[in-house]
Amino acid sequence: MKNIRVNLVFFQFAVLISTTLTMSGCTNLSYYAQAVSGHAAVIHRSQPISAVLSNTDTDPNVANALKKALQIREFASRELKLPDNLSYTSYADLERPFVVWNVFAAPELSIKLKKWCFLQIGCVSYRGFFSQDQAERYAEELKKEGYDVYVGGVRAYSTLGWFSDPVLNTFINYSEINLARLIFHELAHQVVFVPGDSMFNESFATTVEQEGIVRWFASSGTVLQRTELQSRQAREAVFNNLIVKYRKRLHELFLSNLDDEEKRMHKKQIFIDLRAEFEKTKTDYPEFEIYEKWFEQPLNNALLATVSMYTQLVPAFRTILAQHDHDMEKFFGAIKKLGQLPKDERNKVLRAAMENSVELVVVD
Q1: Nearest-CA neighbor of 331 among 211, 219, 225?
Q2: Does this model's pTM top 0.70?
Q3: Which of 20, 204, 325, 348 could cysteine-pair with 15, CB 3.0–4.6 Å?
């Protein structure tokens, strides 16, 4: 996998509001400008899926995928009670593999991601660019400051309902599982968004994504697709547990009384051990080979931290979903109320839910 996730929310474009731009400093002004122009270019290329399907020059594979996307989109609103709007009813071919590139950074001796704060949206744990070159240049600046840095290509982002998000060429060739998961995930961000709490937002959307894909294949999937889904869920659980295990080791190391040089030495060994355990797991569990490209990347604090951002609170959200009898409307109502609490109180509720966490529901 080239990137851990392909559906990070790219919030920064929201500052296209002129008042925000005029209140920003020069550094942020140029950053906001690229976000605004980048998003505008995406919208400019968008056209209704109905128009694409009526065009006889449309690639048949693209047409079939767009028809599937519309079916998934309709299911999302009807069965999952996700917003019923024009998102994912248009299509844009950006003629590039990713729509944005996100930069993540963590201190050399910490697993806590650096945050960037913006007007309107609060703080987020990454900084996104519509240009890969700009993202890489910014990453180099952070490296010079001593940060562990990871740059990940992103295939979709959510405008949180401010605009009608289009289906993009960056993910149109996804498998049905991945296409459905992405649409469910991004629409979930339009339901609940808590400024300044990326882990809450992403874990919530991942929970909706997981519940959605189970229901999608329960209603329309084949036996083979359901088996594939079970296999994928099991594989992802193994991967997430592996990363959590080594993030915990890093966290304990960084909190220890060792001096910085000793910490650096032990940090290197932890990453060596992680690669070694991956190789062993791959031997015992052949399907784990799918993560080879991920492990080919330089392992660092930022890379490992991005995994937990999407999964750490999922057990808590799944518990709350079960407490509401898997009724999506009741679940969304509970999460909206939870999101309105002060962060300390919100985390207390989530910790309690984690202690009573339920296992991921899989299709029989």
Answers
A1: 211
A2: yes
A3: 20
- Alpha carbons 110 and 147: distance in angstroms, whole number: 10
The tokens describing 296, both together, are 């080919």
- pLDDT band of residue 227 (cuts 50, 70, 90) is confident
Residue 24, both tokens: 């920003």
The residue length of the chain stands at: 364
Amino acid at 104: F
DSSP-assigned states of every residue in 41-88: HHHHH-EEHHHHHH-TTS-HHHHHHHHHHHHHHHHHHHHH----SSTT
**Per-residue model confidence as pLDDT tens digits over 297-337:** 999 999 999 887 888 899 999 999 999 999 999 999 999 99
Helix (H, G, I), strand (E, B) or coil at 138: helix
Beta-bridge mates of residue 100: 154
Alpha-carbon distance of 3 to 100, in angstroms, equals 12
DSSP-H helix ranges across the chain = 18-23, 26-45, 49-54, 60-80, 132-144, 176-188, 198-220, 223-255, 260-284, 292-296, 301-311, 314-323, 328-339, 343-355
Residue partners of 346: CB distance under 8 A and separation at least 6: 194, 197, 200, 338, 339
| Range from 61-65, 263-267, 284-288 carrying the lowest mean pLDDT | 284-288
Per residue, the 3-state secondary structure of 330-341, as one string, reads HHHHHHHHHHCC
Residues 6+ apart with CB under 8 A from 358: 315, 318, 319, 322
**Alpha-carbon torsion angle 96, 98, 103, 108, nearest 10:** -100
Contacts of 192 (CB under 8 A, 6+ apart): 201, 204, 332, 335, 336, 339
Q: What are the structure tokens assigned to 200, written together?
A: 């809450």
* Sequence-separated (6 or more) residues with CB below 8 Å from residue 338: 320, 346, 349, 350
105 has which bridge partners? 149
Rounded to the nearest 5 degrees, what angle is found at the Cα of 338, between the Cα atoms of 85 and 116?
A: 75
Two tokens, residue 226: 């359901």
